[in-house]
From TrEMBL:
Forms a heterodimer with PSMG1. Belongs to the PSMG2 family. It comes from Erythroxylum novogranatense. This is Proteasome assembly chaperone 2. Keywords: Chaperone. Chaperone protein which promotes assembly of the 20S proteasome as part of a heterodimer with PSMG1. It comes from the Eukaryota. GO terms for cellular component: cytosol; nucleus. The keyword Membrane does not apply.
Length: 271
């Protein structure tokens, strides 16, 4: 993985998933972070688009994996806009982990959404719930995350076969090919197969502190979920009130790209 610098250098937190992407949009826009470069990795699919945050179109293009730095908040973000090539997620995660370690970063935060259909214990009394997974303790728990009112992802079990297999891959140890035929996969193998799990395992294997912030969502308009996940990330990073205009209670600055997030409004003449 190569980091191509524009102005300065650094390594960000990583966002994956629709809600994670939208949450990083909010964090970048509201903290007025500036793009400092992009990451070029052979395992991520190419994509290109117009400037996501500028108020006027200047012709500056956005790329699949970009780095933004908020000097005022001492934070760096990565915005991932395209998926990883099928079957190469662990390779991609290893590259991310190698680069993070080489850059001297100590704590990486992964933002991701999860399938609402997999939410086993639904307790709507407390509203939308944020789940976490941390490398602080062997069982994935973290006292600070618990203090913030979040629950550890119950499906994490370091002794379960797929989590152990993923950890073995992350550590670069030799493993048997096709150890888990597709027709033998069980429900408990689902979560270790997700991108956040590969990132968690590879970053942890490098000795970095990694915290995954996760929220369940359904297909469709996930803007409200993005506000919750961005709020969780700001709490974890001790950002406090970060100002801005519009959005959730006037705290968040909405990116200009969100104006066309779900396409133009329907043609009312057809009703």
């Amino acid at each position: 993985m190569e980091f191509v610098s524009e102005e300065g250098s650094g390594f960000p937190a990583l966002s994956i998933g629709n809600v994670g992407q939208l949450a990083v949009d909010l964090l970048v826009s509201t903290t007025r972070a500036e793009r400092i470069g992009y990451l070029d990795d052979p395992y991520i699919l190419p994509c290109v688009g117009n400037d996501a945050y500028g108020l006027t179109p200047t012709g500056e293009l956005t790329l699949p994996l970009e780095a933004y730095q908020s000097t005022a908040k001492s934070l760096i973000f990565v915005q991932q806009r395209s998926p990883v090539i099928k079957g190469r997620m662990v390779d991609f995660a290893k590259n991310i982990a190698d680069f993070a370690a080489a850059s001297g970063k100590k704590h990486v935060v992964v933002l991701s959404s999860l399938d609402f259909g997999r939410w086993q214990n639904i307790d709507m009394s407390s509203g939308l719930q944020i789940y976490y997974l941390s490398s602080t303790n062997a069982d994935g728990t973290d006292d600070y995350c618990e203090k913030l009112g979040w629950k550890r992802l119950q499906e994490y079990d370091p002794a379960q076969r797929s989590w152990k297999y993923l950890s073995t891959l992350a550590e670069g140890k030799a493993v048997e090919d096709n150890i888990f035929p597709e027709d033998e996969l069980e429900d408990e193998d689902y979560y270790p197969s997700l991108p956040f799990a590969a990132l968690f395992s590879c970053l942890k294997a490098k000795g970095l502190k990694v915290t995954c912030l996760l929220c369940y969502c359904s297909e469709g308009d996930n803007i409200s979920d993005a506000f919750h996940l961005a709020e969780a990330a700001s709490k974890l990073s001790s950002l406090g009130p970060i100002g801005g205009h519009g959005g959730d209670g006037g705290r968040w600055l909405i990116p200009i790209s969100w104006q066309s997030l779900y396409g133009p409004p329907p043609d009312m003449s057809m009703f």
